[in-house]
């Protein structure tokens, strides 16, 4: 009977995706590298539940790992066969395919030289476009200044014309009043003279000849206007100024995002903050999104604090809710440079940044923080830190602290975790490429500690 060929996936570890090393089989029948399954279960010790990464079967007690002798032999044979095949391919390359590879290298050089020229052309186009934008902007603002100056001259002319009209009107009234005063004084003198006439008969004969008083143009007929005749003009100019400021502010706001979208290829990156005061310049106020909270999490402190509890909370159904993992994300998304601090206590938590597109339903690698390529998680216990991303575990050394600082430079692809006490101590730093806006979050995998349920809180830095 012919022996069936062994497929590569049959002797590969589903955790590291490489050929099995020191293969062991667990009770459900699946096999893994001894170190791979051991590391995974070490991370699950805090939860006291150990599961198979493939079928998700859970074991109440941690199974004893037993070496699979048959798989070890198959892997050894595969390695020998692979070594011979590699030698054969190398020989073929040395003897027959060298000219082809050389041609491919030359072609790649030509392609990359073309790319360099295209990039140089793009830089030149950016410079030309920027220079033209500056020139056009200067012309437009110069024209705007000229229009404002003309309008200012018109307003001044109108004010002076109105001033002349009002002053002339007032002076006319003032002159009439002065004439009346002179006439009244003359009549008063005549009356005074008549009053000294001793011959009453003569007085009565002359009295009817005195002219009667004409109608006065005194205060009853004069409309005295307020002293601030041109207050309305000032108010109108102030209103114009405010509207212009709003327009310029809106224009600046619209211009800024367009400028930030231009790829400045030759600019130097800004240095990372070093002191806590420098980090606080980028402080971000964060709150937790109740629509993402697992039902075994209790929110408080204005949705800045979360506690792991034993009884389910009555949250409404929502597609963003984590149904299987005790996890929660922030309401705010994170781009650019951001810094925030976390206060925690209890047996263990996860301090996380994650894409919004992370899985939500059930308990699997696509949902659990750190076990996929959409999330980055710092696992914190009372005695150590561990970093997880894409199901890869990285032990982290550093002082265990109840307060952590998290710094994100989304554009530069930098994520750093700090222990915050009297000074800031770097715990772990990640250099990667973020393609989506991120959300901060927590995972709480310790139900109880000596002082109650595990808690995590965004610290108010304002």
Layout of secondary structure:
Layout: E1 23-25, E2 31-33, H1 34-44, E3 50-51, E4 58-59, E5 66-67, H2 69-195, H3 200-206, H4 231-260, H5 276-280, E6 297-300, E7 305-308, E8 327-329, E9 337-345, E10 348-355, E11 375-381, E12 385-389, E13 392-396, E14 403-409, E15 414-420, E16 424-431, E17 438-444, E18 455-458
Antiparallel strand pairs: 1-2, 1-5, 3-4, 6-7, 7-18, 8-17, 9-14, 9-18, 10-11, 10-17, 11-12, 12-13, 14-15, 15-16
Please give a structural write-up:
With 462 residues, the chain is α+β, with helices and mostly antiparallel strands. The chain has helices at residues 34-44, 69-195, 200-206, 231-260, 276-280; strands spanning 23-25, 31-33, 50-51, 58-59, 66-67, 297-300, 305-308, 327-329, 337-345, 348-355, 375-381, 385-389, 392-396, 403-409, 414-420, 424-431, 438-444, 455-458. The strands form 4 sheets. A 7-stranded antiparallel sheet has the order 6-7-18-9-14-15-16. The protein has a 6-stranded antiparallel sheet with strand order 8-17-10-11-12-13, with no helix packed on it. The chain is elongated, with a radius of gyration of 44 Å.
Biggest sheet: strand arrangement: 6-7-18-9-14-15-16
Fraction of residues in helix: 25-40%
Helix segment count?
5
Strand content: 15-25%
Quick check: average pLDDT? Answer: 82
What does the largest sheet look like? 7 strands, antiparallel
Beta-strand segment tally: 18
**Unreliable residue runs:** 260-267
The ordered H/E elements are: EEHEEEHHHHEEEEEEEEEEEEE
The radius of gyration computed from the alpha-carbon positions, rounded to a whole number of angstroms, is: 44 Å
Report the structural category.
alpha+beta
Q: What general outline do the C-alpha atoms trace?
A: elongated
Distance between the termini: 77 Å
């Amino acid at each position: 009977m012919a022996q069936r060929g062994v497929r590569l996936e049959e002797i590969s570890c589903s955790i590291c995706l490489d050929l099995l090393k020191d293969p062991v089989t667990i009770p459900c029948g699946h096999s893994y590298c001894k170190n791979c399954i051991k590391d995974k279960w070490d991370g699950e010790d805090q939860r006291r539940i150990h599961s198979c990464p493939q079928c998700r079967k859970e074991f109440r007690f941690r199974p004893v790992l037993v070496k699979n002798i048959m798989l070890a032999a198959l892997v050894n044979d595969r390695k020998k066969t692979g070594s011979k095949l590699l030698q054969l391919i190398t020989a073929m390359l040395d003897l027959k395919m060298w000219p082809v590879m050389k041609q491919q290298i030359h072609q790649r050089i030509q392609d990359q030289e073309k790319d360099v020229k295209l990039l140089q052309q793009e830089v030149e186009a950016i410079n030309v476009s920027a220079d033209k934008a500056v020139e056009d902007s200067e012309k437009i603002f110069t024209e705007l200044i000229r229009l404002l100056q003309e309008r200012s001259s018109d307003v001044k002319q109108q004010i002076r014309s109105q001033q002349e009209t009002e002053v002339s009107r007032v002076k006319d009234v003032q002159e009439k009043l002065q004439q009346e005063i002179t006439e009244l004084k003359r009549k008063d003198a005549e009356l005074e003279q008549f009053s000294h006439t001793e011959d009453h008969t003569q007085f009565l004969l002359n009295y009817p000849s005195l002219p009667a008083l004409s109608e006065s143009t005194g205060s009853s007929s004069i409309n005295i206007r307020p002293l601030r005749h041109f207050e309305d003009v000032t108010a109108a100019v102030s209103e114009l100024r405010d509207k212009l400021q709003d327009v310029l502010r809106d224009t600046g706001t619209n211009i800024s995002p367009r400028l930030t979208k231009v790829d400045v290829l030759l600019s130097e990156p800004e240095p990372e903050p070093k002191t806590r005061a420098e980090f606080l310049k980028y402080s971000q106020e964060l709150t937790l999104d109740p629509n993402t909270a697992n039902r075994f999490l209790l929110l408080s402190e204005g949705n800045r604090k979360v506690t792991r509890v034993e009884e389910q909370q009555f949250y409404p159904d929502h597609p963003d809710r984590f149904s299987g993992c005790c996890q929660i994300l922030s309401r705010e998304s994170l781009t650019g440079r951001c810094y925030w601090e976390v206060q925690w206590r209890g047996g263990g938590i996860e301090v996380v940044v994650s894409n919004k597109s992370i899985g939500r339903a059930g308990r699997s690698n696509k949902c659990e923080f750190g076990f996929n390529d959409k999330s980055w998680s710092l696992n914190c216990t009372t005695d150590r830190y561990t970093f997880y991303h894409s199901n890869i575990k990285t032990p982290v050394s550093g002082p265990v602290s109840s307060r952590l600082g998290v710094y994100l430079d989304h554009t530069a692809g930098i994520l750093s975790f700090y222990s915050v006490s009297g000074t800031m101590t770097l715990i772990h730093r990640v250099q990667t490429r973020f393609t989506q806006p991120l959300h901060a979050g927590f995972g709480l995998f310790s139900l109880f500690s000596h002082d109650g349920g595990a808690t995590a809180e965004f610290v108010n830095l304002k």
